[in-house]
Fold this protein.
Amino acid sequence: MHSPEGTRYRATVHYDGSAFAGWQVQPVARTVQGDIEAALRRLGIPGRVHGAGRTDAGVHAAGQELAFDAPPSWTAAELSRALGSLLKSDVWIESLRETTPDFHPRFQATGRRYEYYLAPGPTGRAPLRRRGTSWIAREPDLEALRAGTRPILGRHSFKRFAKSGQPDVGTVCTVEKAEWLRTPLGDLRFTIVADRFLHHMVRYLVATMVEQSAGDRPPDDIGRLLSGSADVRPPGPAEACGLYLTGVRYRMGWNRPPGVPGLWPVPARAVVARAHSREYDPMVEEGPS
């Protein structure tokens, strides 16, 4: 929406997190927010870029949502082309469009979707696979992994599954979806949707479910951790390279369908729906046809 002061734009962004120290700007490290802000400054557009979530070092995105303001002389098409020419190949703007002046990708989000990809067996160690999946030597039992998701659903304190707390907003999160599936490539994909996430929360959950499924810890450990049992300790977090932020939900719906290009194909019907609408259809979480 144009105004004399400028226009607010929102964009859906993918990035390979391997070379980044996370999303948020840091003084001496390369970050995704820092790269995008630097590209905008080269276009004569100073100011802060706001993101929907602060992904950690090494974590990827196939659905980060961001917003920034630009002078009214720019159009969305011009900005998209200009940013695409300035950003390095590990950051890609999937779509960029005008939005309302008050849009904020973080505070107006009603849900976020993360996907974690495990690559069991020897092929998971191939260097190009290791950039985007987490290798695991033993093949986990899929049904045991699925059983581990049951205690996660609902509203709980995830304090025991977080590297650090958030004193201002607490440790309670509402998880509405948590499921394991096998991908067309033979990987195992864990999808989790919640209103918010704590630092390293998904990675701690994945590591605990994997150990639980292998019999390395009792089958009720996740429930006991959620209840705050003092005699249970979570393992270290799973590797960052397997984790993706794949979608953010707003009042109008999800900013993109689930899946990661190259790992899990986006269903054709979702692509068609996106092509005919400014927003992906909000009501359905789809998997591949």
In short: Helices lie at 32-42, 76-86, 127-130, 142-149, 201-213, 221-227, 268-275. The longest strand covers residues 60-70. The CA atoms of residues 102 and 203 lie 33 Å apart. The radius of gyration is 19 Å.
